[in-house]
């Protein structure tokens, strides 16, 4: 009898399992969603080329427009900070009619290393990546938006500063006659010892080399994940009073006993020369290979 009851009970349970109300709910599929890691999407290297106008700010009161070109490379070490290399080449000019009666022109090549700081990211914070819920009840990766940035990251403003060397050759000529008045490099120019006076090496150095501190602002606008355009405004502080081939309060020329060569000792009490540039450029971004963390999600 017990055997009979046991058989009937097992048969009843087997029958009930065929009804939907008592059937075990199927296990929801598990979706594997790829979420970007902390470095995914961050450029590995940025390389930019820019062209623009330059102006010289020295002892001659009226800056003239010159032309300059620049190459820069940045390696991001975080979402805010990048190590930057700057290279520039171009021409500078300025003039003044009273006292000096001079028009200066200079050609230069400059290199510097420094840091770039993303002001937009620094102020607004790092963009958050939002994962949305499925909309159609299916756990498909297509239903999860893991890359949507709800902040405007198509443009940003960078501040950068660096230190480097500028090599230049400058001359100043008469505004009225065009005759050469002063020059920075000639047969007697030479490298100097630390006192900036004692000659070192052979004479006839073709370029004056001085320390320079560039600082600037750059506005970037992305065109795609690889390309962006930018506008760059920069001011360069040069550790010299010779960039315009003119010393402060000294209008001597090659026709005077003191001559017109202005290489040699820099007077520490005089103001240092500066130059500025406004340029536009295009930047190419080499991006990291995608690395992903995986998260398993179930729908309850």
From TrEMBL:
Keywords linked to the UniProt accession: Signal
Bias type Polar residues, positions: 129-144, 184-197
Superkingdom assignment: Bacteria
Residues annotated as signal peptide: 1-23
Region (Disordered): 128-150, 184-203
Coiled-coil ranges per UniProt: none
Name of the protein: Outer membrane protein beta-barrel domain-containing protein
Upper classification of the organism: Bacteria, Pseudomonadati, Bacteroidota, Cytophagia, Cytophagales
